Please model this.
Amino acid sequence: MKQVPEIDFIITWVDNNDPIWQKKRAQYVKNEHEEMNSQARYRDWDTLKYWFRGVEKFAPWVRNIYFVTDNQKPEWLNIDHPKLKWVKHTDFIPQKYLPTFSSQVIEWNFHRIEGLSEQFVYFNDDVFLIKETKPEDFFVNGIPCDLPCLGPLYPEDDFSQILFNNIKCLNKHFSLKQSIKANPIKWIKNQPLSGVLKLALYGRRDSIPNSVSRHIHTSFLKRTFFEVLEKEGELVDKTCNNKFRTCEDISQYLIRDWQIFGGDFVPRKPIGRAFETSLMNNNDELIRFLSKKKGKIICINDTEYENNFEAHKKQVLEAFEKILPEKSDFEV
Model:
């Protein structure tokens, strides 16, 4: 019998309607960066139960699910489920960083979660499993599945500054040319033609232009967190001391890129797609992708540009109900 590797899932969630959380946030809200901390970052689409239904149906092999919240949980969640580990911020984030309203602070401390496996997959609460998966979609022989994607970095918004901070840090520790030279087959395998052309364009230089991250799931090795902290602990500490996202932060995508440029990845084509709800229309590709299960994973990203929230929410919930109508054991 084939042994299933020990892979855990992490999902983060916040209940923005919680009066205790609202009161706590209000004490610090005057210092937040408006664009990067808008209400869209916390708005609830009532889709969380479909995340758990998807995991139960499409990833029964997962070892544990770490449900990370600020001491919050939906009333319907079965916290006695043997695979579910309800983790509060106070359980793993150092007290000096609390309270926090920045996802980046939470993410930079995942390695501190007690019992978390060396191999784990991180999901935002807008990233869902919608088709059968297998461990090899995420890790092969203990190495994360990923695919490098290079490109220019356009300063379109304040989030671009965080990406710039990440790339600036990567360029201190890695040479793009040497990373490709060390693992040429990994870098070329499974690349689309556009990816090969970008490697030819950028790969002759030491400097990394931009490592494009796909907003779906991320496969992590816990050891990479410790490695980055050893090399850039001061930079991580500076990010974790911010109560809200700021332009001076570095994000968890730095850890993912650290794995790639260090050669800790197995080349694998993306198994999912990301969509923005603000771009939905009457004949919508998001709904078709979801209802017809055109990939294994979907990201349904809410942004501050969403101006038809209730209508779009109704469409999304109806599509989920078609593919995942049955209550999971994670629901009481």
In short: The mean pLDDT is 93.
